[in-house]
């Protein structure tokens, strides 16, 4: 196993700090939950988490908490991502890949518009909290 240079270690520490900050809840109002049960992982949920983290970094949005859940009971549409964001109904997306994850960040979280083709579930208009 090769040794890491001091510079590589610093970069790794910085990357891990940013990852940890993404899980810190203070002052954040958007929650993204990724289904990471065995079927979610098998379907590519890890790539989805990586794409979400990367795209959030690109758009400079530090107001989002990323959580990993276990089984969401939605094997047939894994990977699944639930987004709870102010001003837009809680939404569960299905069949999410890295590209869709990036769209969720830019379209749903930044612009407040649903990524229609991948909406699996959202509350009916009469039960949406005001
Ligand atoms: S085992 Fe697939 S969603 Fe639970």
UniProtKB/TrEMBL annotation:
Gene3D superfamilies per UniProt: Glutaredoxin
Claim: Oxidoreductase is one of the keywords in the record: yes
GO molecular function: hydrogen dehydrogenase (NADP+) activity; iron-sulfur cluster binding; metal ion binding
EC id: 1.12.1.3
Keywords in alphabetical order: Iron, Iron-sulfur, Metal-binding, Oxidoreductase
Family annotation (InterPro entries): Thioredoxin-like_sf
SUPFAM superfamilies per the UniProt record, alphabetical: Thioredoxin-like
Signal peptide range: none
The protein's name: NADP-reducing hydrogenase subunit HndB
């Amino acid at each position: 196993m090769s040794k890491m240079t001091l510079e590589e270690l610093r970069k790794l520490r910085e990357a891990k700090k940013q990852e940890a900050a993404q899980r810190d809840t203070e002052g954040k109002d958007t929650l993204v939950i990724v289904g990471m049960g065995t079927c979610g992982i098998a379907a590519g949920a890890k790539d989805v988490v990586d794409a979400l983290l990367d795209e959030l970094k690109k758009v400079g949005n530090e107001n989002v908490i990323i959580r990993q859940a276990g089984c969401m009971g939605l094997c047939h549409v894994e990977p699944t991502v639930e987004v709870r964001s102010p001003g837009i109904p809680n939404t569960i997306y299905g069949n999410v890949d890295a590209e869709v994850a990036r769209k969720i960040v830019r379209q749903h979280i930044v612009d407040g518009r649903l990524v229609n083709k991948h909406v699996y579930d959202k509350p009916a208009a009469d039960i949406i909290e005001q």
